[in-house]
Amino acid sequence: MAFKDECGVFGCWPELEASKQTYLGLYALQHRGQEAAGICSRDEGKLYLHKGLGHVADIFTGPVLEQLPGDGAIGHTRYSTTGGNVASAAQPFLVQGRFGQVALCHNGNLTNTEQLRSRLIQSGQVFTSPSDSEVILALINRASADNLEDALLEALEQVQGAYSILLLTETQLLAVRDPYGFRPLSLGKLGSAFVFSSETCAFDLLGAEYVREVAPGEVLILDRDGMRSRFPHPQIRPKPCVFEHVYFSRPDSLVYGLSVMGTRREMGRLLAQRHPVEADLVVPVPDSGVSAALGYAERSGIPFEFGLIRNHYVGRTFIEPRQSIRSFGVKVKLNPVRELLKGKRVVLVDDSLVRGTTSRKIVQMVRAAGAAEVHMRISSPPTTHSCFYGIDTPSRDHLLAASRGVEQIRAFIGADSVGYLTLEDLQASMKDLDGQGFCYACFTGDYPVPPPPGGRP
Ligand code: AMP
Are 210 and 73 in a shared domain? Predict the structure, then answer.
């Protein structure tokens, strides 16, 4: 099974330089996926596509963007996957079917892809990739409705799981969010044009104004008559992903209408209250721990220092010297500032522990730099369950906290103490008073939509 994880989507309509604006939007969403990117534009009823492997700035040059004309565009950045041919899975997908040319990009994970795919294959459908997005396009093409909008609603009746989708046709741009609203999607205004983005940091780069979220369960249609909304699903309580706020989104974004910097800092403050410790420095694991570490330092009164420096130019692979260097992978990314750490009692703050392997190396690194004590503080609860809705987590047996208590975790990563945020504190940081407003499944195992049979590979 191939997972399409942690992607970013952007779209705009009707805007004269649609593909250039989309390029900029994707640039701001690069953190949501560095494996592949693509843009599809629409000009006078014809769609143009360019996509490739790598970073947005490498794939899209000036001449390439000139080949993507028109006043409407959608784009995608893609994160690594657990399988499949990566080149064939780059998005947007563009097909030619009963409704002419249709392009689609998707952030999220369907949970019933395999059932739908095998049913479709039995009935003669062919697929070019392992992606669940192609399944949606096939369902649209096979619907009984005679127009794309209704065919899309028929397709949505059959799919389960997480999807924030942008569709571009010869005459329309459509934005769709699943009824639980697992993955974010915001609507903005750029002059007279509408823009859509996984995160609002892209609006800031373009000078667009944030209007609102695409509502969970909403299908938003833009065409030459303007914008209208449809709500095809029965009303349910939305469960947007809390992990967007814990780790994945940029701190300068509004996600679900909440400032990520604000929620993360509050997580850090509450963590300081919950797990105080006598120490000399609060040091974030950059970049993921920075906002929470600021909150921890603020509430504890312990000075904040950048005791670890991150190299921001590290690619996905690097060539190691023949004689392998201990902890090379972590050392390439992070380097301790010895002058700051030497002899100090350090509170190390990160947003989450997954396998624990990186954290273990970082703790060793901080000790080797001369720290007298290392106290690990995690600004989320123990990650005990895999995500099936679009966050890349390993299977349960690889999750450190799935089978170990805090003392065993402390021993594994080699810290002097370990403290996690409680679920209640996380809910308080999100201003989720009854604890029902978000999906917390990675911390609780309480899955709003049943995981696929067989679970995570
Ligand atoms: P580990 O040492 O395996 O526990 O990894 C912990 C690090 O992974 C932390 O710095 C987290 O910020 C980061 N992290 C958490 N979730 C993810 C994810 N889904 N994808 C990539 N990195 C993650």
Answer: yes
Residue 455 placed within a domain = no
For the chain, the helix, strand and coil percentages under 3-state DSSP, each to the nearest 5: 30, 25, 45
For residue 4, pLDDT beyond 50: no
Beta-bridge mates of residue 386:
none
Distance 352 CA to ligand 1 centre (A): 6
351 pocket-lining for ligand 1 (C-beta < 6 Å): yes
pTM here is 0.96
Dump pLDDT digits (tens) for 197-240. Answer: 999 999 999 999 999 999 999 999 999 999 999 999 999 999 99
Amino acid at 167: L
Cα-Cα-Cα-Cα torsion 61, 65, 67, 73, nearest 10 degrees, comes to 150
CA distance 41 to 355: 40
Q: Where are the beta strands (DSSP E) in 216-344?
A: 219-223, 226-230, 254-255, 258-259, 281-284, 308-310, 334-336
Report pLDDT digits (tens) over 127-144: 988 888 899 999 999 999
Say whether 105 is catalytic. no
The pLDDT tens digits for 374-394 are 999 999 999 999 999 999 889
164 & 284 share domain: no
* Consecutive H or E run containing 428: helix 423-429
**433: DSSP letter:** T
Tell how far the Cα of 396 is from the centroid of ligand 1, in angstroms.
Answer: 14
- Regarding the beta carbon of 386 and ligand 1, being less than 6 Å apart is answered no
- Domain of residue 376, residue span: 262-311+327-436
DSSP structural state of residue 170: S
Answer whether residue 86 is part of any domain. Answer: yes
**295 shares a domain with 163:** no
Residue 353 Cβ < 6 Å to ligand 1 = yes
- Give the span between the Cα atoms of 363 and 357, in whole angstroms: 10
Say whether both 153 and 211 belong to one domain: yes
